[in-house]
Amino acid sequence: MKFNYTNLIYQDNLKEGITTATIKNSEKICQKAHQEILKDRKNNILGFYDLPEKNVSKILTYVKEQEGKFDDIIVLGIGGSALGNSALYSALKVEKSLKKNLYVCDNVDPYLIKEILSKINLKRSLFNVITKSGTTAETMSTFLIFLEILKKELPETYKNHLVITTDKEKGFLREVINKEDIANFEVPDNVGGRFSILTDVGLLSSALVGIDIEKLLAGAASMKKKCENSNISENPAYINALLHYFYMKNGKNISVMMPYSNPLYLMADWYRQLWAESLGKKNDVYGNKVFVGQTPVKALGTTDQHSQVQLYVEGPNDKVVTFISVKNFTYDYEIPFLFQERDEINYLGGKKISELLNAEQKATEIALTNANRPNCHLILPQIDEFSLGEFIFMYEVQTVFAGKLLDIDPLNQPGVEAGKIATYALMGKKGFEKELEEIQKSMSENQTYEI
Fold first, then answer.
1. 439 within some domain
2. Looking at the structure, do residues 323 and 243 belong to the same domain, yes or no?
3. pLDDT over 70, % of the chain
4. Which of 93, 217, 259, 383 would be a feasible disulfide site paired with 98, CB 3.0-4.6 Å?
C-alpha cells in the first residue's frame, strides 16, 4: 500500500498552511504521544496492537466443522460489533467470489428484520450474536426475536444455529452459553468495540463466509512494523494523524473518506465510527472542556463527484479529503469502439473502465488541489485480505495517535453511554426510574405540532 500526502503540505514560504517546517517543529508533541502509546501498550491497554499475532486456530477449526451446513451467516450486533463485519464482506465478496451470504442486523428497525427473514433459509442459517456486555439493548432485542423464531421452527436443533461472541467470563450471554452449551468466542477485555475488527468479533464471520483471516492478520502485521517507528516521516499512521491534527487546529473539522471502488465503500463506514467515536470529546484528559473532533463523511468516487465534489471544491474550506484507489483490478472491462465517428465519445474506445475510474480520481484530486483544498491518497495494490489488514491497522494506530496529540482519551465514549442510559430508562429497565422521571418531565415541556 502507498500513501501520498503531498497535497496536505504547502510550500515552506507560505505564511499559512501546514508546511514541512510545521512537521519538523512538532517533534516534541509527537514523541510525547509516542511515549504515551508505548506506556499504554506496556500496561495492556491497547490490546489491538497484539492482534496481528493472534492465534486463529479455534476459529478455523470451528469453521471447518460447519463446512457444508450453512449458506447464510447473520450477524446480530451494532457499532464495532457489526461495521467491520459488513466492511470486510463487502470489500471481498466479488473479489473472492464468496459463496455464502452475510447479513448484518445492526439496527432495531422492523423492516430490516423482515428483509433478512425474507432472504434467508432458516435451516441453512447461522446466527452470530456479538456483544461484549451481553446487555446491548439493540443486539439483545434482535437476539430474542431470532431465538424465538429458531426455537419455534427448529426446536430440536436451534442451538446448532447459534454462535455467541461475548465476554470470556461474565455477562448474561456467558451464562446462556454455560447453561445451554452454545458454541462461543471471546471479546478481549483490552480491545474496545470499534477496534475489534481483528478479534473474534470480525474474524469469525469473515472466516465463515470464506475470507482468509490469516492473510488479513499478515497484512496487519506488516503495517504494525511500519507503525512502530517513532520517526514521523517513516510512520504512515503517525504522519497522517499529525497532519489531520494540525488541520483540526486550523478549523478543518470535516474528514471525507472517498474510495474510488464500490467494494471499499463500507470501509469508510468502519472508519467513520473509529474516527468519530474516538476523537469526538468534550473534555481532555486534564478535565478541560475542549469540544474536539472531526466529523467523518463518506463519499464514493465517481458517484459523488456528481453530488458532493462541488461543495468540496467551492464550498467552505473546512474539509480534509482522503482518496482511496486500487491499482490492479482482478475484473476489468474494455470500453468498445462504438460510434467511432462521434468525437463526443470515441476517445473512450479501447480504454479500460478501471483507467477511467482512476483518471476520475486524479482529476478530482487536481481540482481540489488547485482550489487549495487539502487532500491525500491511499493506493491499494489490489483489493485483498493483506491490503485490507494493512489499511485497518494503519487507521487504528492513526486514531490513537491523533487522540494522544489532542490530549483526549481515544478509547472511551461517554456521549454514547449517556444515550444508553436514556434508552434503558425509556424502555423501563429496573434501576433507571429516576432517569425516566427526569426524561418524562423534560418531554412534558416539549411542544409538538401537527403539520
1. no
2. yes
3. 98
4. 93
For residue 8, give every residue at least 6 positions away whose Cβ sits within 8 Å of its Cβ, in sequence order, or none: 18, 243, 247, 320, 374, 375, 376
Whether the CB-CB separation of 39 and 28 falls below 8 Å is answered with: no
What does the chain come to in residues? Answer: 451
Confidence at residue 11, expressed as pLDDT on a 0 to 100 scale? 63
Q: How confident is the model at residue 6 (pLDDT cuts 50, 70, 90)?
A: very high
Tell me how far apart the alpha carbons of residues 121 and 140 are, in angstroms, rounded to a whole number.
22
Closest CA to 26 of 178, 297, 249: 249
Q: What CATH number is given to the structural domain containing 65?
A: 3.40.50.10490
Tell me the pLDDT of the chain averaged across its residues: 95
Q: Which residues are catalytic?
A: 277, 306, 420
3-state secondary structure of 171: coil
Alpha carbon 5 to its chain centroid, in Å, reads 21
Distances (CA, A) of 108 to 111, 186, 293, 366: 9, 24, 28, 42
**Distance from C-alpha of 146 to C-alpha of 150, rounded to nearest angstrom:** 6
Asked if pLDDT for residue 147 goes beyond 70, the answer is yes
Can you tell me the distance from the alpha carbon of 146 to that of 148, in angstroms, rounded to the nearest whole number?
Answer: 5
DSSP state letters, 242-278: HHHHHHHHTT--EEEEEESSGGGHHHHHHHHHHHHHH
Report the domain count for the chain: 2
DSSP state, residue 334: B
Cα–chain-centroid distance for residue 321?
17
Q: How many CA atoms lie within 13 A of 450 on its CB side?
A: 0
| Maximum pairwise Cα distance, the chain | 76
Global model pTM greater than 0.70: yes
C-alpha cell at 238: 503517525
Considering the domain architecture, whether residues 306 and 277 belong to the same structural domain is answered as yes
Residues 246 and 190 grouped into a single domain: no
Distance of alpha carbon 276 from the chain centroid: 10
Q: Is the dihedral of CA 2, 8, 12, 18 positive or negative?
A: negative
User: Which residue type does 142 have?
Assistant: T
> Over 70: is that where the pLDDT of 163 sits?
yes
Q: Report d(CA 345, CA 16) in Å as an integer.
A: 43
